[in-house]
Write a structure and sequence with these properties.
Length: 406
């Protein structure tokens, strides 16, 4: 059986017309000889009647502290509704199809309700229906615990469902359908001439996704990568080829062209930079260790860490910054705090070993008078912290400088 997992995001499923277009994509795959396994997100965004956020608002109107097990059962409804809507659409088009919840599709998770991780997939029901030539439509974003309680997988969870099913079924590919023409060189809402990237490595897309590009969830990429199942990010509304995410191409290993130093620019807004002087504390007190242990104990996630002998610099999300600063003050630090910053990242496997990339980035940002508050680099990513109000200018400056646009 040549399985093809096709995942459709919420914006692709909102209206009957869009669902007809989705059905076309599924029927075409079937005609091409694949057995499609369809994974759906909840329809629409907040405000739409069956979107996940709308369901949450509804129950919050009753009680803001409902148990997470119950909340999970509610949050899983959005995908059930859109899955059934897709079965109805496929049947109308003469396609035998069946709806399965995540649990029925065999997705078993741990019991971290509302942010569960998949531990196992037993796709025996999918195999059974596929053998009967029936298209299976699976509710994304959900699974069940070993005891049978419904769980959800956190934001972007439908991408993870699709990747896990792709691996379990040893699918030919995992197609992620969305409202843009693939993975773009930058967020198209910020950079008007952003361009779809035709081919990208798992590592590059992981970096882009971790550093803010929300087009695909990094966990999904990590799962697909384990079995080398290609992911294709495509547009529901066009026949554009989209982006192929892989480590191998038809002709062997993907060659990252030397002229492509930077593949894409991504960003994370709303972070606060914290700078704590450690020089007044005796070495024996391990002040750096104390800082990070106390942040961890308070459940504060830290990022962009630079440790120097006299000073420790890191970032936290804006909303937890007051708490982080209070903890430091209680420990005797007087940190310098810079709120409302953004982390802008340039990602590209082609930068490894190429001299002058950092110089180019600094050149591009200085030409626009953008102040760089902090930087760090790895073999495939350069991170820059800038003030939030300069974020969009910084993204466009880098995008232009590396000639990523059309
Ligand atoms: P879906 O509902 O299909 O899962 P998402 O909203 O999760 O869609 O992801 C698609 C959106 O991600 C796009 O509409 C786009 O605005 C945004 N996005 C951010 N960065 C990028 C990027 N580098 N490439 C493509 N899309 C991006
Ligand atoms: Mg998404």
């Amino acid at each position: 059986m040549r399985y093809l997992v096709q995942k459709f995001g919420g914006t692709s499923l909102v209206t009957p017309e869009l669902r007809e277009q989705v059905a076309r994509k599924i029927i075409t795959a079937k005609e091409e000889g694949y057995m499609p396994v369809v994974v759906v997100s909840a329809m629409g965004r907040e405000g739409d009647p069956y979107a996940t956020d709308t369901l949450i608002r509804f129950v919050e109107g009753i009680n803001t502290e409902i148990p997470l097990t119950a909340l999970d059962s509610l949050m899983a409804c959005g995908e059930v509704i859109s899955g059934v809507a897709m079965v109805a659409t496929l049947e109308k088009n003469g396609c035998k199809s069946v709806f399965l919840t995540g649990g029925q599709a065999g997705i078993i998770t741990d019991d971290r309700h509302t942010d569960a991780h998949i531990i196992e997939v037993n796709p025996r029901f999918i195999h059974k229906y596929a053998a009967e030539d029936t298209i299976v439509v699976v509710a994304g974003f959900q699974g069940q615990t070993e005891e049978g309680l419904v769980t959800t997988l956190g934001r972007g969870g439908s991408d993870t469902s699709a990747a896990a099913l792709g691996v379990a079924l040893n699918a030919d590919a995992i197609d992620i359908y969305t409202d843009v023409e693939g993975i773009m060189t930058a967020d198209p809402r910020i950079v008007k001439n952003a361009r779809p990237i035709d081919m990208i490595t798992y590592n590059e897309i992981c970096q882009l996704a971790h550093e803010g590009a929300k087009v695909i969830h990094p966990r999904a990429v990590e799962i697909a990568m384990q079995k080398n199942i290609p992911i294709r990010v495509k547009c529901t509304f066009s026949d554009a080829p989209g982006t192929l995410v892989t480590s191998i191409s038809d002709n062997g290993p993907v060659e990252i062209k030397r002229d492509r130093i930077i593949t894409g620019i991504t960003h994370i807004p709303n972070v606060t930079q914290i700078e704590a002087a450690t020089s007044e504390f005796p070495e024996s007190e391990h002040p750096q260790l104390k800082i990070f242990k106390s942040m961890a104990a308070a459940g504060i996630s830290v990022d962009f860490i630079n440790i120097h002998p006299d000073v420790t610099i890191y970032t936290v999300k804006d909303e937890v910054a007051p708490k982080a600063v209070q903890i430091l003050a209680n420990m005797g630090f007087s940190p310098i705090v810079t709120p409302h910053c953004a982390k802008v990242s340039a990602v590209g496997a082609g930068m490894a070993g190429v001299p002058g990339v950092m110089a180019s980035i600094i050149e591009a940002l200085s030409a626009e008078n953008i102040r760089i508050l902090q930087t760090a680099d790895s073999h495939s990513t350069i991170w820059c912290l800038v003030k939030q109000e300069e974020m969009e200018k910084a993204i466009r400056a880098l995008h232009n400088h590396f000639k990523l646009g059309n």
